[in-house]
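Morning - protoporphyrin IX containing FE inputs below, output right after.
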Amino acid sequence: MSALPADAAPTLSALLRDGTRDDHTAAESEPFIEHLMSGDLDRAAYADLAAQQLVVYEALEEASAAVRDDARGGTLVFDELTRVPVIEQDLAFLYGPAWREEIRILPAAHEYAARIREVGSSLPHYAAHAYTRYLGDLSGGQIVRRMMERHYGLDGAGLAFYSFPEIPKSKVFKDVYRERLDGLRLDGAEVDAVLAEARLAFRLNRAVFAALAQVHRP
Ligand code: HEM
């Protein structure tokens, strides 16, 4: 017998997973991602991806700071997810000490960051962007890390972004994160906003990958 009545409303986390399934397949099938993961690119391509992620996470983590004080949203903010300092560490390794002058941010990454800045103080929109990135980093990100080690000779240095030392069991943490999403007490319109924004977040990620594919070819 199911634990839930058959007509129970699906949880937000289930709606997000189901509602972005096709977007996820499309994102992981982007040529830049496929080539990077297959070892057909080089360390510079990986470094360029890390640089684009810097501006996206700067915007996301500014939004986290704003949402932290939200009566409902504060439960979604976890210090152990914070990525900006580790991205900076990775960039210092990958580009050297002058990394701030060396990196070049693509318009697609600026547009993604601008969208987060535009809507990120609204809880449904924040939830969508945080879900898309952090649950992804804790999931596929771990596969990315292994492939970068294997193909591009990285051995931890340069890959701090994919390491969550304070989260030893990502499955347990992801379940907690999903419970927090499900406990946000959003109304119907807000749930619709989360789902639409999560799909947009995947599209913004794909646009960054498409732009990177123009620069890095096998
Ligand atoms: C290298 C490409 C990728 C691979 C191999 C990959 C792989 C995976 C896998 C295996 C899971 C399931 C983990 C689980 O159920 O515990 C997952 C979940 C997820 N991925 Fe990816 N992924 C990739 C790219 C992306 C990208 C580009 C995004 C978005 C920016 C993303 C966002 C997510 C999210 C949000 C989840 C959680 C789904 C849920 O349970 O609600 N992934 N990924």
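Note: The CA atoms of residues 26 and 175 lie 24 Å apart.

O.
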